[in-house]
Specification:
By secondary structure, the protein is an alpha+beta fold. Helices cover 34% and strands 27% of the residues. Strand 38 and strand 39 form a beta hairpin.
Length: 990
């Protein structure tokens, strides 16, 4: 028999149950509810909440939101936070500050130039930054620039390559085990380094590069008709490419495409055919394709097997290759390349040079040109066969027929001259006859970059490669290899000198060896080296030790599990330094949330709401068609499988990358990610922590609603239901508007993860950790225990699957609206407002007893509700506060609210998540008939589609609390702020 608690009234919407209610309670229970809602709650809610209050390490209170009802272990609508060291993590509680860099830190941008982070905070220079994932580098925009006065210790990290970074102790760096804060890093630990530096930024002037007059002149010279010229000019105007100045944002992309085309591309241009093409590795062509699409043109990649037979000075050469090519059919794009300086047709049989406008551009423009041309034409970094500690010269060549040799030499001398501006030494070899073709003898003209270490480091560190990931990876590894090698030689030189000086001062040889070996730990020297330094003298610089790896071995070891251009290097030193100034950070629009500073790589069931620009007057005539097509496109019901057909191995990527995986595979827009809690991905998800059974249950369910209380609903905004007009306007809400809301999670995958962990926790909880609980449904483990951390990583996989699932469903919704209204989703204004999760455990920081403290916050059937200017809400909702979506029953309505500062102060940033049940599913099925409910709803203007009439009965509106009462309670309590109420007009129910 559950004992009824005595409630202490704090105010009209807050009630407290003291620790005297139940033995072992560590904190009181607090319930957010009006008196009406409090009286409607079953006693099991308070019993469960008080059980939660007995768990080790719980902080402040055990909370119940106004939608609270009994669940598994924790009440649904329950919130609890636990100390990270003394507290626990529990599957039952989940359901089935700025880290900063000093101002002079140099940030690498997508265009290969560097900016000091202190010069970027005003956002004046709009540029994306490279973000590294396990597989490759992506470019991502900066969502938020952060700056504060340094109030913590600043530490300096120095690597074996000599790279240095200064940052606060809590700033994370990438290690083989993931991001790790500086305070936890030790000497000789491996961290990721991206050694390419690029060049310093200089602002371009506004000189004109492309004008309408130049474009028309080019097209007339080619012989295009007036009608073709007019059509092409219109295409370029549509894309804002008819006028380009040196400071135009798109010029950087055009420089890269131009240079690569001069190297390994071609432009076809006749009266009948005008197009362009590029050749290369498929993964590099995909990058080029994205840049072409960025300009507004389409491109397609083709594959074919080719047989070649060429007569060379060494004899006839025959070979077979698989060739990948990228074709751009747009005439306007080809014309643009030619206007920029790209030759037309066979490059070996004509005159062309580096365009004058490139030679007059800032150095970072010149770097882009060279790096892209080298990506197409320069030899890949390669160690010598007989001396694998050294490298061949880097070479680039151009082929010319005998009539155009002088043109080829001039082109190479222009490259040589630009290289010299970067301090890179090169030489040009005499032309050599290569082969005979239909245009006569062809000669190869080569430029060689001298192979001394300083010169190669300067080439790869300053110029590098664009559009060639394999060359980039090898070049970055060469930089690191040579820097370590040079530092090692310097260290051995100093040790040799020290040994001689000690000997001259009278120290014995044995003592010298002992002191030097103790100091160096034998890393750079051995006793024989010391003896030779003392007695034999050295006519040349010391060589590297014989135990040092050759480059092939080094490359394999230093890039293990990295495929993005980064290299593992050792920390040589870590020390606290004096710093009295501002420190800085960014929030990146990418799930990996990292960027490159000084070469260092630094770093759920839920609701989703989508707005449209459509009014109900426009939608009403097509409402039945809409809901029918949505019902077909978005599978629902028990055991439903999705249209996304992937392997179990690919599913492993999904659960580690979340919504990002979906967007990268075409199921969404980049903007969706920044409007999703955690940017659609929980960092630290580890697929190795989940069972094969969980994978089997989840891999074919992406893009499905499922059953239970999951639904997809078309809703309408009535003018009288807008409570905060200013906030509604900022969120894109207007009267008579149609929106789409849906509720779903990670399906059987998340349930299996919880089940697996519960079984583990029940086995170790008492026997291993001596934790006694009042209810086995509260099975838990210490948060920092191996079992606790395993579940935490697995739970994140479940959240990521839910994020991806909802992202794919959003994509399908956009597809249906586009099909029905014969318009692009963008034109229909189908922008996501937000995606919030319901069943989570997250590490967050709060003010507790006057001190900021990290806790693990469990939200079981509750929603995060961060207020304005919360550092986790870095983006467009930073000033407004986090959107909070609260779904009602399918018969009533739903709400959009905003989080508040009061929620952060009182409830660990949490609020209600829905109506909250008042009767069990079995009771509802006993009391209501699904077919009758469907008819009644349609009489009231709500179209209903369902896979299960019994499932529909379970979700009858009368089985839930009044949504208006629930929302009124949290609004009055101040833990969320009402913005708008939505009215349902069509519903899909699993």
């Amino acid at each position: 028999m559950i004992k009824k608690p005595d409630f202490t009234k704090i105010n009209d919407t807050l009630w407290e149950i003291s620790t005297s209610y139940k033995e072992g309670m560590n904190v009181p229970v607090r319930v957010y509810a009006t008196k009406k809602i409090l009286d409607s709650m079953d006693l099991a809610v308070f019993d469960q909440a008080s059980n939660v209050a007995t768990l080790p390490g719980i902080q402040k209170y055990s909370y119940v939101m106004p939608d609270g009802h009994s669940g598994y272990g924790f009440p649904i609508g329950g919130v609890a936070a636990f100390d990270l060291n003394e507290g626990v993590i529990s599957p039952g509680g989940v359901g089935f500050d700025i880290n900063c860099l000093v101002g002079d830190s140099e940030i690498l941008t997508e265009h290969g130039y560097r900016l000091k982070i202190k010069d970027m905070v005003d956002g004046r220079i709009k540029v994306s930054l490279p973000v590294l994932t396990k597989k490759k580098a992506h470019n991502a925009e900066i969502l938020l620039y952060l700056r504060r006065k340094a109030r913590d210790d600043v530490y300096e990290i120095t690597t074996e390559t000599g790279h240095v970074i200064k940052a606060t102790l809590d700033h994370p760096l990438l290690t083989p085990t993931g991001m790790k804060e500086i305070k936890h890093l030790e000497k000789d630990e491996l961290i990721a380094l991206y050694p390419f530096k690029g060049v310093e930024y200089t602002e371009p002037n506004d000189d004109e590069i492309i004008s309408p007059e130049l474009l028309r002149e080019v097209m007339k010279k080619i012989g295009l008709s007036d009608q073709s010229i007019k059509s092409i000019m219109n295409e370029l105007k549509k894309r804002n490419l008819h006028e380009i100045k040196r400071n135009s944002p798109l010029l950087s992309t055009l420089i890269k495409l131009l240079a690569y085309s001069i190297g390994n591309g071609t432009v076809y241009m006749t009266e009948k055919r005008v197009s362009s093409a590029f050749w290369g590795r498929r993964e590099d062509l995909l990058t080029i394709k994205k840049d072409i699409e960025k300009l507004g043109f389409s491109a397609n990649i083709y594959k074919r097997d080719r047989r070649h037979r060429i007569s060379t000075r060494y004899g006839e050469v025959r070979f077979e290759i698989t060739e990948y090519s990228l074709h751009v059919p747009a005439r306007a794009f080809a014309v643009l390349l030619v206007a920029l300086g790209c030759p037309i047709g066979n490059k070996a049989n004509q005159v062309f040079q580096i365009p004058n406008w490139i030679k007059e551009s800032p150095k970072w423009h010149k770097r882009l040109f060279l790096a892209s041309y080298f990506g197409a034409e320069m030899s890949s970094p390669k160690e010598m066969n007989k001396h694998p500690y050294n490298f061949y010269m880097a070479s680039v060549s151009v082929n010319k027929t005998s009539r155009f040799i002088e043109s080829g030499l001039k082109f190479m001398y222009e490259i040589k001259e630009i290289l010299s501006e970067f301090g890179i030494k090169s030489t040009i070899a005499n032309p050599e006859k290569e082969y005979s073709g239909r245009h006569g003898d062809t000669y190869r003209i080569r430029l060689h970059v001298l192979s001394n270490p300083e010169n190669l480091i300067q080439l790869y560190q300053t110029i590098g490669f664009e559009y060639n990931i394999e060359k980039t990876k090898r070049a970055n590894a060469v930089i690191v290899y040579l820097l370590i090698k040079e530092n090692m030689i310097k260290e051995r030189t100093m040790i040799a000198q020290l040994a001689k000086e000690k000997y001259k001062s009278g120290t014995s040889t044995i003592q010298i060896i002992k002191e030097i070996m103790e100091e160096t730990k034998g890393e750079y020297v051995n006793p024989r080296f010391v003896i030779r330094s003392i007695y034999e003298g050295r006519k040349t610089m010391p060589r590297i030790p014989t135990k040092y790896n050759n480059f092939k071995e080094f490359y394999k070891d230093s890039t293990k599990n990295l495929n993005n251009g980064a290299v593992w290097v050792k920390i040589r030193n870590k020390e606290k330094v004096k710093y009295d100034g501002y420190v800085y950070d960014f929030t990146m629009n990418h799930h990996a949330h990292n960027f490159i500073a000084n070469g260092f790589v630094v770093s759920n069931c839920g609701m989703r709401l989508v707005r449209t620009d459509l009014t109900f007057d426009e939608v009403k005539p097509k409402l039945k068609e809409l809901i029918e097509k949505l019902f077909k496109k978005v599978p629902s019901g028990v055991g439903a499988t999705g249209f996304v057909k992937i392997s179990k191995d690919e599913f492993k990527k999904v659960v580690e990358e979340g919504s990002r995986w979906a967007v990268e595979h075409g199921y969404g827009w980049e903007e969706d990610l920044k409007r999703t809690e955690e940017n659609g991905c929980m960092e630290g998800a580890d697929v190795n922590k989940i069972s094969q059974r969980a994978i089997t249950r989840g891999y074919d369910q992406i893009g499905t609603l499922g059953s239970g209380n999951h639904y997809l609903e078309i809703q309408v905004v009535k003018e009288e239901n807008i409570f905060d007009k200013e906030a509604a306007k900022k969120l894109g809400i207007f009267p008579n508007q149609v929106v789409v809301m849906f509720h779903c999670g990670s399906r059987g995958f998340g349930h299996q993860i919880a089940t697996d962990s519960l079984n583990v926790f029940l086995n170790v909880m008492e026997s291993k950790y001596k934790i006694k609980i009042r209810d086995k449904e509260l099975a838990c483990a210490p948060f920092n225990s191996p079992e606790g951390q395993t579940y935490f990583s697995a739970m994140k996989c479940g959240m990521n699957m839910a994020f991806a699932n909802r992202q794919v469903i959003l994509h399908r919704i956009r597809e249906v609206f586009s099909e029905v209204f014969k318009s692009d989703p963008e034109k229909l204004g189908m922008h996501q407002i937000y995606d919030v999760t319901h069943n989570t455990a997250k590490v967050e920081k709060y003010l507790i007893d006057g001190n900021w403290k990290e806790v693990i916050v469990h939200r079981k059937g509750a929603t995060r509700a961060f207020g304005p200017e919360n550092q986790e809400m870095k983006g467009e909702y930073y000033k407004l506060g986090q959107p909070v979506i609260i779904g009602g029953s399918m018969e009533t309505g739903s709400y959009l609210l905003l989080g508040t500062k009061k929620a952060e102060e009182e409830t660990f940033g949490s609020t209600a998540h829905g109506s909250g049940r008042t009767m069990s599913r079995a009771q509802a099925k006993h009391q209501f008939r699904g077919d009758q409910l469907q008819k009644d709803m349609e009489k009231r203007g709500i179209i209903v589609k369902t896979d299960s009439l019994s499932g529909l009965a379970e979700e009858a509106g009368a089985a839930y609390k009044n949504i208006d009462d629930v929302v009124e309670a949290i609004d009055k309590a101040g833990i969320s702020k009402k913005v708008v109420r939505f009215v349902p007009v069509a519903n899909i129910k699993g």
